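Complex 484.
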Amino acid sequence: MHVRSIRSLSASDADAVIVGMFPGRRGGPGAATVLKGMGPWARKALETAKFDGDSGQVAVLPSTNPDLPAQVVFVGLGADVDLECLRQAAGRAMRALPEKARTVATTLHRMELDGAAQAVLEGLALGDYRFDRYRSSFPVREELSVEVLGGANQEVEAAALAAGIIAEAVGLARDLVNESPSRKAPLEVAERIAAAAGEAGVAHEVWSGGRLVEEKMTGLLAVGGGSHRPPCLVRLEYRPRRPKATIYLVGKGIVFDSGGLSLKSADFMETMKSDMAGAAAVAAAVIAIARLGLRVGVVGLAAMAENLPGGGAQRPGDVLAYRNGKTVEVLNTDAEGRLVMADALCLAAEAEPDLIVDLATLTGANKVGLGPKIAGLFGNDEEAIARVKAAADAAGERTWPMPMPKDYFSLIESSVADMKNTITGRYGGAQGAALLLAEFAGEGPWVHVDMAGPAFVDKAEHYIPRGGTGFGVRTLVELAAGMG
Ligand code: BES
Ligand code: ZN
Ligand code: ZN
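Predicted structure with zinc ion bound:
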């Protein structure tokens, strides 16, 4: 995204201008000039289109005035405008524009809100995302150019830099999730992550084969055994000068979850290329945090494997002995996420960081509990959970704290090992999974984000396109920003 600040629309060469409106068709910042330039018919046209200025509404009108861009996008802001509302309005406007509009002007950032410019630019860039690599009919798209009308230069520059870094990171996470699973073997994903990390000056290491055996990465080896494409662990590290804290970020990276021998049915398998969304978000967040130069040390661990029922697959009944001495009985090979997360959590816990946050598309049960758009928060430290919740709120990512009562451990008691990877009965699936992870996360503050719902959506909304959403990236960046 290229951003420049311009004084007035007469200096613009934009294809479209985005204008905010309040309920009752009251003009938002900068709307008066545009409406006047369009003539009285514009208000009539908005009325006919039933556009009131409520949040969620958008109307694209042509303009015949040569002093205005050819298209005007009116976007409703609603009555109480906050940063997320601006982000959504910008994204919605962007998605309403025809593909070929590559230069857009806007006055949306002129709302009296701290951080308005960054929120608007984030919304535009996030809403501009397309995954069209596999569409033969799509032309190559030029980079998006944004003209910010009458903004203070320095502020706009800083906002553009931050928004650009964040949107690129979210775009990377979305690309990794949307990629055809045939083209994202664990080691291929690791390579792509390593390349992006290298560009951002982030140290990276990939463990595979013998190294995984030496390091006792039991879950990765067991889950990955069913696929010809071997598992790996990606370690990213960003260490600024004099860090104020160190965070470990752990992500579930199942490049495809067929369920393994406990095979999923066809409809549940359809979206299972998204089962590496936690790993993608963690990798993208470390890169963004490094590029932003935040003052926190961050280590990202991505546990990558493919869950297939090949000849080397693990069996229901297998017992896994972990690096931290604990054992898990595998009763359902489709509950593989917790098995690979346990390995990476052992490594994180050994480092005794100030905070561990893990992101995983872990359980269908969490999606049942909170619906498709909200991630569940679990953990061993109320303050840490509240911190992650606050970061997510600020980023506009929806999360909700979930209970994880100790006595529910009985749900995962095994007759042969320390625990089993399934639950007894039907209820408490997300809690059972989280309680298993807790056994590997150590004693320090740890937060588990179950993002099975919001990682992948089948309907586009405001700045979120269909498919991989990049969920978690912005929460993690916000969290690091708050700690550094
Ligand atoms: N990857 C799935 C969880 C999931 C479900 C993610 C829907 C995104 C959307 C996970 O590995 C899984 O299959 N979990 C099972 C566990 C069960 C077999 C104990 C589940 O939640 O049904
Ligand atoms: Zn599974
Ligand atoms: Zn899974």
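Residues 257, 275, 332, 334-337, 361-365, 367, 422, 429, 452 surround BES (ligand 1) (CB under 6 Å).
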